Amino acid sequence: MKTKFLLIATFITLSFFISCNSDDKTNDETAKTISNDEIITNSKIDASIEDVTNIAEDQFTAQQNSTNKPGGTIKNFLPSCAVITTILTNNTWTTTVDFGVEGCTLENGNSVKGKMIITFSNDFTAPTQTISYTFEGFYHNGKKLQGSKSIVRTRKSTALLLAQHPVATAAIDMTITFDDGSVYTRKGSLTKETIAGYDTWFNWEDNVFVVTGSGSTTFPNGDTFSAEITTPLEFKASCKTSIAVKGILSITKNGATAVIDYGNGDCNTLVTVTKNGVTEEIDLKK
To answer: SS3 for 249?
Structure first.
């Protein structure tokens, strides 16, 4: 009888350890895997930052060219529902863009509400200008954005385009709270070059941007995504999307890597993702 009980106890003990080891292995594999849902979430944060950067630059450009308005329609980035208040104090412009409590829809389909406060110098002849902005109850597609951002803007020749063109370097330090209460933080630096459309400031839709840089996103569970643009990301305003249409982004998390290819320039939100030698197509607008 004692032998029987001993065998049963041994079996239960072994089963327990096997189960624990299996669970540990599963958790470990999950921790070292980048899921498509995580990639899509990261892309949503990218889209928010892309849009608020465009809003800030649009207001800078509009003020810079306020005395140089062409005939006909001016096609800015902002929708008509945005209420804009601009004040000049001690050679500094302060522009408040109020999207209201009900919100507005941008032409790329993204919704925004609340306020952005944008400041920059009145000296538009300076070789470089700094654009700063903060938020007041600001939401992008239901996500609350907090923090600050500065953009150093100049015109110069680069390896991407020899002609003098606008080049903006953005420092990012933001907190993003999703509508389910989950909190993410994003830090990094991005350089954005306007390689087409910069001479027609009154027509936003003909702009083409190329973005390089890197950053990190901390997820609610503490995981950190490190992202690096290995091939410049290209954005076409005419595509009316805040998602790149060309370029390659590499993401790493806990030793795992995912390479995201944004395509050949076609206006869509589809990308190919390669993980562990396996490539599949996903829609970042999901």
So the answer is: strand
Q: Is 246 within 8 Å of 228 (Cβ atoms)?
A: no
Q: How far apart are CA 52 and CA 97, in angstroms?
A: 11
> How does 32-52 read in b/e, with b if 16+ C-beta sit within 10 Å?
eebeeebbebbbbbbbbbbbb
19: pLDDT strictly greater than 50: no
Q: Which amino acid is at 6?
A: L
Residue 105: both structure tokens together:
């829809």
φ, ψ dihedrals at 167, nearest 5°? -130, 125
265: left (phi over 0), alpha (psi -120 to 50) or beta: left
- 230 in Cβ contact with 223 (< 8 Å): no
Burial tier of 176 (Cβ tally within 10 Å: 0-12, 13-18, 19+):
buried
Q: Give the predicted TM-score (pTM) of the model.
A: 0.86
**Residue with the two structure tokens 């396996």:** 278
Radius of gyration of the chain (CA): 24
- Euclidean distance between CA atoms 63 and 130, whole angstroms: 14
Q: What are phi and psi of 241, to 5 degrees?
A: -145, 150
Which amino acid is located at 148 in the chain? S
Q: What is the largest CA-CA distance in the chain?
A: 100
pLDDT in tens, 201-238: 888 999 999 999 999 999 999 999 999 999 999 999 99
Structure confidence by residue, pLDDT tens digits, 103-148: 999 999 999 999 999 999 999 999 999 999 999 999 999 999 999 8
